[in-house]
Amino acid sequence: MFPFLPANDCLIDSHCHLDAAEFDGVRDDVVAEAIRQGIGQILVPAVNQATFAETLAMRERYGCWLAFGLHPIYLAQHLDEHLADLEHKLATDRPVAVGDIGLDFYLPALDPVRQEYLLVEQLKLARKYGLPVILHVRRSQDRLLKYLRQVPVVGGIAHAFNGSEQQAAAFLARGFKLGFGGAMTFRGSQRIRRLAATLPLSALVLETDAPDMRPEWAQAVPNRPANLLRFAEFLAELRTTTPEAIRTATHHNTLQALGLG
After folding, report:
1. Please, which residues bridge with residue 66 across strands?
2. Distance in angstroms (rounded) separating the CA atoms of residues 28 and 61
3. 81-97: buried (b, 16+ CB within 10 Å) or exposed (e) per residue?
């Protein structure tokens, strides 16, 4: 079992697809490496109905936190009846959040009307079960904020945040924390770095999105949850503080975002 440390100020990877195929055959080693680097907990969000079982298996083997949701990038795979399957998982399997859900207006093949329908239905489920949400937000910040006003939820995490300061403030006002990870390690990501450096520390959580969102120093290999330690150290440098301060703050922020602390 994963020795998660909810009572301590361990590092928490608030977004990691540990069930991804890239980790098949090496998953135990990946988890062991993360533990050695001080990662005390991982949140594993599902992306479609077909992965609900694999996501649940991550808790059974490693003790991870779980979220169930229908990710907008996998839009072609989502059927209307999968919303009923999702509600069943929310009612019976005790996830900590609904996710990944959201809007992706970057990829032109993704029908925005269908995306918005599924988002609203999942926000309704999150509200029904009193769960926070893990949001995929890509070129869709203002539209997502519109739906959060229409279907208020208890908060959650805006994953891989890449919006403006004004949009950040709007998410924070609705009870959300903002996820930062590999994108801030790129020298060209000046806007993300500025946000990471200047937003209130109480607004931030750390994430890897492993195996995706590879950091600048490891573009040729899948991202791993163990990289979270270097992300924390990098964030500390940006904010001119200590890694210990980042660890303590982001631990508390993640628990708060998920209603666990």
Report:
1. 44
2. 9
3. ebbeebbebbeeeebbb
Structure-token pair, residue 22: 């890239």
Give residue-wise pLDDT tens across range 35-86: 999 999 999 999 999 999 999 999 999 999 999 999 999 999 999 999 999 9
- Nearest Cα neighbor of 225 from 28, 60, 18 is 18
Q: How far apart are CA 203 and CA 253, in angstroms?
A: 7
**How far, in Å, CA of 5 to CA of 9, rounded?**
8
Helices (H) and strands (E) in the chain, counts: 9, 8
Determine contact, residues 247/201, Cβ cutoff 8 Å.
no
Judged by phi (left if over 0) then psi (alpha if -120 to 50, else beta), residue 156 lies in left
Determine the Cα angle at 125 with ends 119 and 127, to 5°.
105
Q: DSSP label at 199? A: S
Q: How far apart are CA 152 and CA 145, in angstroms?
A: 10
Question: 11-257 architecture in CATH?
Answer: Alpha-Beta Barrel (3.20)
pLDDT of 261: 78
3-state secondary structure 119-183: HHHHHHHHHHCCCCEEEEEECCHHHHHHHHHHCCCCCEEEECCCCCHHHHHHHHHCCEEEEECHH
